[in-house]
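ok so I'm stuck.
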Amino acid sequence: MAKTMILPAAARYLGELSGAGKSTGIATVADKVAALADKLVDAIHALEKAQHAAHEAGSAHAEARSFKDRVIPAQNDLRDVADELETLVSDDLWPLPKYRELLFQY
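replied:
not stuck anymore, here's the structure
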């Protein structure tokens, strides 16, 4: 989901911000979105690497330990970045229900 839904939404929003003008406020938001998009890419790669290593662990016990020690923390790191992007990316571009939409029905 991060690679196929969240990253493309962030990229589209960054494109919209880039075309919106050169005001300091927009540039600040664009810089933040760009930095988070870069962090998201890094987190996606880290998760993929951790998952691959877990599957190559050799035994079910070693795989489970690898998931506990590497995959779950990598998932949490990715989620932290996605959660922050969710607060910045325009509602009409965000592909998933936002937390506030899940908590409060409008």
